[in-house]
Design brief:
This protein is an alpha+beta fold and 133 residues long. 45% of the residues lie in helices and 20% in strands. It has helices spanning 35-46, 80-105, 107-122, 127-132; strands at residues 15-18, 25-31, 51-57, 65-72. A four-stranded antiparallel β-sheet has the order 1-2-4-3, with helices on one face. The protein starts with 14 loop residues before the first strand and ends with a helix.
Length: 133
Amino acid sequence: MSVNEVKVQKAAEAFQVRGNGRASSRTFAIGDEDHTLGNSLRHVLTNNAKVEFAGYSVPHPSEPVVHIRIQTTKESGITAVDALKEGCATLYDQCAHVLETLEDVLPETKEDRIRMEKIAMEEGYGEEEEEEE
């Protein structure tokens, strides 16, 4: 391990909702994630007319967690939890569309994805998510 490498520990909790008071304002702590998910989700949420504010932070590079803050408009009547669910669904759909388009243009991309999924299954990745459901 080089001097600049940091061994990041797994997050203590996979998901935590923080805050009380109005249901339209919450902070979500998502474990084992970083700027990639935080900024993507923030972008999707800020494009939602029901969301008044969306921001994210990574408290420290050695902490495997991203905090996402959501405040919805009073007029929308939607909770921050529902806004997060909508945002995640939208982001998922966007990623699926990009992957599908890429695989149409570059068929070898699909072959690579299938090969990587097979390797991940053989090495046991994804099993812990299935057990939690």
